[in-house]
């Protein structure tokens, strides 16, 4: 596989026609973020349904990753179906699942004091963890809409007494219909300041979550791709896991911000509507510019240089 740090990235924009330009992505497994990639708030991003259909038609295994630990996969499946995105629960992988699997490997059958919702407590129960505030092995913090002073006080006291501190993800705020709300990272900072103990974050950008997802698919990083809308979580996590990465501009990171980061995505696209999955030729990884668009290689090479110059100029 190519050294991702030295891989030049290319940017393509969607033509203003009914059918978007399709970019071939050669990979055997697909990991993707949910918010900003497939959905935006309570709306499905245009082309996401068709992209999932193409993955299924090509028989490509995929997992949809989210740092949100509020919901179980079945809950998420129902919420996505309600807005028009039909995916099986088995294709949804949350930071709560990754956290439970991590704790199961670290301390099987342990005890945890948990601040979180059903997505986290169910995942921990499924790996035979006991939820208790009496001498727990871990204090585990996840997303919740009912933070209480009593819970936070108990968490602080337990961490100060020696319980190991785990948080599902480092996100400090989360979007809602009514605006931003404090998320796991913000509450973790409160506990950390009070105790002097920093949490271990399991979710993105920790590549541990990416490797756990690949393990669940039975896939390898060399022949898998990570698709995300954030350079600071999705793309860095995929890069550190040794995967090819695709940044889509349908979410948080915009094209003019890419050059601010010391690492680069393999490819930059407007959205997943442009992604066409294909097989890895000869068992080796290949990123774009194959099959029906191979005759455009020279054009893409020159476009890439111009686009990088344009991006650099927009950041300066």
Major sheet attributes? 7 strands, parallel
Give start-end ranges of low-pLDDT stretches. Answer: 1-19, 284-316
CATH architecture of the largest domain: 3-Layer(aba) Sandwich
Number of DSSP helices? 9
Derived from helix and strand composition plus strand pairing, the structural class reads: alpha/beta
**Do you know the CATH topology of the largest domain?**
Rossmann fold
Give the rounded overall mean pLDDT: 84
Distance between the termini: 32 Å
Order of helices and strands: EEEEEHEHEHEHEEHEEEHEHEHEEEEH
Model description:
- Helix 3 packs parallel to helix 4, helix 3 packs across helix 7 and helix 7 crosses helix 8.
- This protein has a seven-stranded parallel β-sheet. A five-stranded parallel β-sheet has the order 9-8-10-11-14, sandwiched between helices.
- It has two domains: 175 residues, 3-Layer(aba) Sandwich (Rossmann fold); 106 residues, HAD superfamily/HAD-like (Rossmann fold), CATH 3.40.50.
- It is built from nine helices and 19 strands.
- With 316 residues, the chain is of the alpha/beta class.
- The chain is globular.
